[in-house]
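Milestone 3.1: sequence recovery, worked example.
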């Protein structure tokens, strides 16, 4: 369903919106949107690790995992790495589609941006794990992740250039400027060689932002998950 959604977004929203946009103000919006769509899909896929944790708790998988001859840290690290890697592999073919649609690539820049997307997926998985084990309620988690998706993805450059987000509201622009989705989307556009309407002057800064996001939530997710894995009270 997510793959169908991805293609339909390109064919329907991307093509239609690009015809409605002022090409003098925002040139080449279609390719700009396709690149951002890849990052939005990666974010959506990485979030689902939190729902897996609730399913494991509901079906008693936790108890089985805790009985295995591995340490708690190894178990938690494996869960975190598996979530990020699975989402990245899943979105890989969709990224290939977006590259075909965009039709351009800078090999070195693309490898750097691909590494950034890889770290970004791990960071989102860590964030999802952190929130899931803190809330311990699938219903509240579902609601909260829906709110976060609406805020984090929309208040970024995934769909709109930063200048237009700032024009709509300076506060929105401030959030978008420090948003990890913005870092990942801008780096991916930089890697695919989309030069129009990109304000990215120094790719090192967003790359360091993605690394910081990855390090923070990977550490938080592993630490909190390890401490609360046997805490009970899952709903």
């Amino acid at each position: 369903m997510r793959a169908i959604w991805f293609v339909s977004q390109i064919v329907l929203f991307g093509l239609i919106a690009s015809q409605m946009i002022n090409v003098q103000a925002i040139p080449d919006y279609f390719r700009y949107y396709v690149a951002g769509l890849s990052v939005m899909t990666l974010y959506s896929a990485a979030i689902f690790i939190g729902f897996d944790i609730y399913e494991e708790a509901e079906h008693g998988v936790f108890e089985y995992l805790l009985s295995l001859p591995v340490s708690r840290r190894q178990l938690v690290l494996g869960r975190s790495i598996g979530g990020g890697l699975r989402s990245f592999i899943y979105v890989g073919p969709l990224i290939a589609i977006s590259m075909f649609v965009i039709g351009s690539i800078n090999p070195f820049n693309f490898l750097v941006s691909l590494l950034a997307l890889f770290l970004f997926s791990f960071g989102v998985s860590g964030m999802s794990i952190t929130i899931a084990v803190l809330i311990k309620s699938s219903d509240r988690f579902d609601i909260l992740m829906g709110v976060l998706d609406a805020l984090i993805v929309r208040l970024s450059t995934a769909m709109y250039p930063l200048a237009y987000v700032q024009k709509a509201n300076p506060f929105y622009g401030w959030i978008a400027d420090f948003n990890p989705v913005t870092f990942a989307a801008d780096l991916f556009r930089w890697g695919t060689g989309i030069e129009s309407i990109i304000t990215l002057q120094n790719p090192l800064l967003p790359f360091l932002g993605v690394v910081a996001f990855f390090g923070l939530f990977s550490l938080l997710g592993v630490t909190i998950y390890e401490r609360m894995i046997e805490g009970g009270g899952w709903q």
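The first helix runs from residue 2 to 20. The chain has a mean pLDDT of 81.
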